[in-house]
Hints:
Radius of gyration: 22 Å
CATH class of the largest domain: Alpha Beta
Shape: globular
Strand content: 15-25%
Number of domains: 2
CATH topology of the largest domain: Rossmann fold
Amino acid sequence: FFTIAFHQEFRLAVGVSVKFFPTGHLLGAANILLTVEEGGKKKTILFSGDVGRKNYPLLPGPITLPQVDYMLCETTYAGREHQAEALPETILEDVIRRTCVDKPGRLIIPAFSAGRTQTVLYLLNKLASEGRLPSIKVFVDSPLAIDSTKTYEKFPKLLNEEAQRFLRENDELFDFENLVYVKDAKQSRQIDNYYEPCIILSAAGMMEGGRIQHHIRQNISNNYCTIFIVGYNAEGTLGRQLMNKRQQIEMKGKSYDVECQVEVTDAFSGHASHSELVEFVGQQSPEKLKCLFLVHGEHDNMLKFKQELQNRGYANVEVPGLGQTYEL
């Protein structure tokens, strides 16, 4: 593997080149522009990847892209708008106060190792720097999240201006008093015996694997615990079951009554909302875009998104089936 800078054209083969554009979803996430020349004709194909959001903590938003012939566009949040109106740090501060200050509870935050964990840590650090974070332990219990955090620290120039300014003024993006990085499985299990109010930040975000499952099992029937869901959870996942207020869940063949509090916010979502996806596609001229392929989403929402785009003048919109091929 080797690194290719954003905005730099790279030749893959004779007549085939690629260029990456920052999209703001994760550190280093990119839209990919593929240019193919054959038979004296040039074709341009844009793959959106996961499209980020404007004004998101840590990362700059998506940029304006060139006109292309073909586009593959993700649709994770097609048909849905983000509902949170308050700032993410304000929402985080509120749930911490209600869970860990108003009562001596523990706050469990399932979070993706790369991206979501760093956003939460950054906002916790901001709260701490402003004297708005209570003096409680914050456990980061995910080896991959710890490694990903180190990667974020290595590339501050890829962060947005606000984050870079915070780093200059505070020296650390993610480190603050009472932060504990959990090193191994033994130390992870020892958190069970910590009876003071605390925050546990662990992966995986959809709760389908990783150390978060242990923390869920240990606390699902604890009415002093709040599980704070801050990320997307696909249909059929444990996270989606909790989001849907299931009264009982099953993990590893055993049933558990859900007696803890479950709260959900989309304020931390790193995915473009429906209107932001419409804006992203809207950079392309309906007359010049030869075909638009919708991918990476729930089928019914993709069909609704397709209809809206067609109403906006995009005549050729496809929702490909698994294994389906197209000749461009």
